[in-house]
Write a structure and sequence with these properties.
Blueprint: H1 2-10, E1 11-15, E2 31-38, E3 41-44, E4 49-52, E5 56-60, E6 67-71, E7 76-82, H2 84-90, H3 94-106, E8 109-111, H4 114-132, H5 139-163, H6 170-185, H7 192-199, H8 203-214, H9 218-235, H10 241-247, H11 253-264, H12 268-274
Antiparallel strand pairs: 1-7, 2-5, 2-7, 3-4, 3-6, 5-8
Helix pairs in contact: 2-5, 3-5, 3-6, 4-5, 6-7, 6-8, 7-8
Length: 275
């Protein structure tokens, strides 16, 4: 029963009318994914005002500062609440996640065509059905898998826009370039200074940009991608831990073990034992 309560708090699916609540009541506690069913809503992210209407999809990331929210009298929406730690635990793909994070930050409202609406409606229905089955033996993992499918569908819906993402914000452009570099080089380079040099800026300025754009230091994003590479290697048991340390240019096995523990929460040996 303890597990069920824990995960019911981490993932919730609500409707503004049947549950008599509004998405803005949960801004400080969850990542919020909203499908507007009727009426309209307006809000500010402190950069500009946004308006969402029927069949628009809205994502409020916990890192965004959402203020000045208002709703029309006939407003209705279904909205999915996901806690930050649940998102981190079941995030299925880091490369798209990072680019999607920036796209959503700049575009919190996204109009859905009929096909995209069909996908997300089906995902919400799956959430509703699975969340209701509180006594399922593998309740937490089932909800996690539904959430992973939901994220894949979101990135598919956004894919063209993300690939063509342009911004007049110089900081955002530098940050996107930094993410691409981290994706490419984190397997062997995990020093902020390396990426700052590649971008022809100072490490301090890169860290400032990362903090301003994502509310996370540059080192966190480097570790994000490095952790992805480490897990890929650890999943292949034909590669020894010594080989992984060598391929990722760690100075010693002990250094690799400490780094792995910090970014994944487990030592390499513990991770493989879990597998």
């Amino acid at each position: 029963m303890e597990i069920i309560i824990r995960y019911m708090k981490k993932v919730r699916l609500l409707n503004t009318k049947s549950d008599a609540c509004r998405p803005s009541e949960y801004i400080s506690d969850y990542h919020i994914h909203i499908i507007v069913r009727n009426g309209s809503m307006t809000f500010s992210d402190r950069r500009q005002m946004h308006t969402a209407g029927r069949n628009d999809f809205v994502i409020w990331q916990m890192s965004n500062t959402i203020v000045d929210v208002s709703y029309s009298d006939d407003f209705e929406a279904d909205f999915l609440l996901v806690s930050s730690d649940f998102l981190g635990l079941y995030n299925p793909e880091m490369i798209w996640a990072a680019k999607g994070y920036i796209f959503i930050k700049m575009n919190p409202v996204f109009p859905l065509n009929n096909k995209a609406l069909e996908y997300l409606n089906d995902d919400f229905l799956q959430f509703r059905n699975r969340l209701a089955n509180e006594n399922a033996l593998f309740y937490d993992d089932v909800i996690g898998r539904v959430f992973q499918i939901f994220l894949f569908d979101i990135w598919d819906v956004y894919s063209t826009s993300i690939q063509n993402m342009q911004t007049d914000d110089n900081s955002a452009r530098i940050f996107i370039h930094f993410l691409n570099l981290a994706q490419k080089h984190s397997i062997t380079n995990r020093d902020v200074a390396f990426y700052a040099s590649e971008l022809c800026i100072t490490p301090k300025y890169l860290s400032q940009i990362s903090q301003d754009v994502s509310n996370q230091p540059a080192s966190t994003w480097i570790e994000y991608y490095a952790a992805f590479e480490i897990i890929q290697f650890l999943n292949d048991k034909s590669i020894s831990l010594t080989d992984i340390a060598d391929r990722m240019h760690f100075s010693s096995n002990s250094h690799f073990t400490r780094y792995c523990k910090r970014v994944t929460g487990m030592t390499p040996t513990e991770y493989r034992e879990k597998l």
